[in-house]
Amino acid sequence: MLREHNLKVTPQRLGILSILEDTGHISIEELFTFIRKDFSSISIATLYKNINFMLEVNILKEVKIPNSKSKYEISKDEHSHMVCRKCQKLEDITLCLDGVIEHASEKSGYSFDENALVLSGVCPQCQLA
Amino acid sequence: MLREHNLKVTPQRLGILSILEDTGHISIEELFTFIRKDFSSISIATLYKNINFMLEVNILKEVKIPNSKSKYEISKDEHSHMVCRKCQKLEDITLCLDGVIEHASEKSGYSFDENALVLSGVCPQCQLA
DNA sequence: AGGTAAATAATAAAAATTATCCTTTAGAAA
DNA sequence: TTTCTAAAGGATAATTTTTATTATTTACCT
Description:
3-stranded mixed sheet, 5 strands, DNA-binding
């Protein structure tokens, strides 16, 4: 992935991507805590720079969540997100928004090429408690 | 609105709400620039505190937009947003997401009570240029 | 009108992000 | 392999954004 975008393959970058793969979604501060376990001397500036590079070339996506901090994920097929108000967990879900987007396009005259949908509620586990 | 939520009615707060009514959506920094025209000595801290108060009691909503800063709007009936990648304009659109959300709920087991959808593309005006 | 809790302004402090600058390193080329 | 160089990392300073503190002012209830 890195090589495809002319980014040098460094251990730090591999570490960041590895954590993103494992966790699915993670905030900057969580990521910094994790990566420090493997690279105890990594600089916060390096982390920010790399996140930004990878966002620019679309290796990563930022997920903006109502009432909480952004999380980052490795780019994959288009999907939406679900966030649990109780346990704060963030999960992917693949939905078909074609009809809705088509309708929005007709109604507004916009031509859309991206969408970001976050559904907030309570996850199945937290519903029991 | 303010009185209903036990917030005192101050000229600064009325000024903020008035700008929000006029602009529809506005970022903190834009709002600060605007409000300074009417209240040249208003403190940035006052602005942040009031925005946060009004968010807490749901007089306002924060709209988180991919690749740009959040904007704020006066709460109204549920709706989605459209952002133009060329002119950066943000607009409301009312869409029916019931089907999609119902489907998401069945598929995931979540129970949802809120949704945030932002569609990104090009507005009709910018399509001409 | 007077009293009081809440709001404002000014400012400091904290948190988040970006810039700078010097050292190190990945990866191309010899 | 070794060498060379542009790019990346680390340390830290500087910005930017947001929140906290405190003294003064004001909305609004009697």
